[in-house]
Amino acid sequence: MGKKRKKPAKGSFLARNFIVPVVCLLGVISASGFYIFNTVYTYFEALNAPIVMELDPNIGVRSYVTEFFTNNGAEEMLPIIACESNFKHFGKDRQVLRNQQGSSAIGVAQIMSSVHPDPKILNRYNKSNNTDLTVEDFDVRTLEGNVGYALVLYSVRGVRDWECAGKSVALGG
Fold it and tell me: pTM for the full model?
């Protein structure tokens, strides 16, 4: 008879046939998991970079308009502009605000772009203020041109050109 075979220690069957393969499998899963996580993270990072935020184009319009008319002694225009456009120069489409009833009124002061800037009004303004402004000085599609021409129009004709002028008394103007 030859040598006696050693009996395996208790639990070694479990270690050989269950624990070792499970530990190896967990190692593969965790390595794979890291790879998958890293790949997914990189993918989403690429989708989100760079982060672009769209800001409201009307930020600062109210303060600009308020300061402009206050500095030029035309505070009476503020409740009118609040009524006409709620101090918005741009619509939801990010384009210059247009009158919803179909007129040519545009911008924060709702200037009728089909009529203004009017050379006759500018001539009257120039004579009384010793200036030489021209139609080309006012692009009523821009905030500055719209507000600037509104001041000229107000200086020459008062508030009668604005639909909200009658309502401004009720608004506190």
Answer: 0.68
> How many residues appear in the chain?
173
Strand partners, 57: none
**Domain boundary assignment for the chain:** 11-52, 61-171
Q: Quick one: how far is CA 30 from the chain centroid?
A: 44
- Written as tens digits, the pLDDT of the chain (173 aa) is 566 666 555 555 555 565 555 555 555 555 555 555 566 556 656 666 565 678 899 999 999 999 999 999 999 999 999 999 999 999 999 999 999 888 999 999 999 999 999 999 999 999 999 999 999 999 999 999 999 999 999 999 999 999 999 875 444 44
Q: Are 97 and 107 in contact (CB under 8 A)?
A: yes
Question: Helices in 15-142 by DSSP H: which ranges?
Answer: 20-48, 61-71, 77-85, 119-129
